[in-house]
Amino acid sequence: MSSSLLTSAGEVLVRTRDESFAELARRIHALAVRGPATVALSGGSTPKAFMLGRWPAVRCQRRRWSASPGM
């Protein structure tokens, strides 16, 4: 269940992993229906979990994926 915290830097949304991935999938879908889009995933475990089962395989097969080298 998501919650929010108000900090000096602004509001921070706190979500479960499943809620986070569901929101990410919703946002990616909203971009994709408008045409080509670029989405960057950074960090080690975040993209790995996303690619290993949080995104339906059928949708992954219909996307063109590329990776850029790390800094």
3D structure, described in words:
With 71 residues, the protein is an alpha+beta fold. It has a domain at 22-64. It contains three helices and two strands, in the order ββααα. The chain has a two-stranded antiparallel ribbon. A hairpin with a 2-residue loop joins strand 1 (3-7) and strand 2 (10-14). The chain is globular and about 40 Å long. The model has no long low-confidence stretch (mean pLDDT 75).
Helix content: 40-55%
Largest sheet, strands/sense/barrel:
2 strands, antiparallel
The CA-CA distance between the termini, in Å, is 35 Å
**Total count of strands:** 2
Q: What is the residue-averaged pLDDT?
A: 75
Judged by helices, strands and strand pairing, the structural class is alpha+beta
Binned strand content: 5-15%
Molecular shape: globular
Radius of gyration: 14 Å
Query: Which sequence of SSEs, written as H and E, runs from N to C?
Result: EEHHH
**Which runs of at least 5 residues are low in confidence (pLDDT < 50)?**
none
- The largest sheet has its strands arranged as 1-2
Which key phrases capture this entry?
71 residues, 3 helices, single chain, 14% strand, alpha+beta
Summarize the topology:
Blueprint: E1 3-7, E2 10-14, H1 17-32, H2 45-54, H3 57-61
Antiparallel strand pairs: 1-2
Quick take:
The protein has 71 residues and is of the alpha+beta class. The chain has a domain at 22-64.
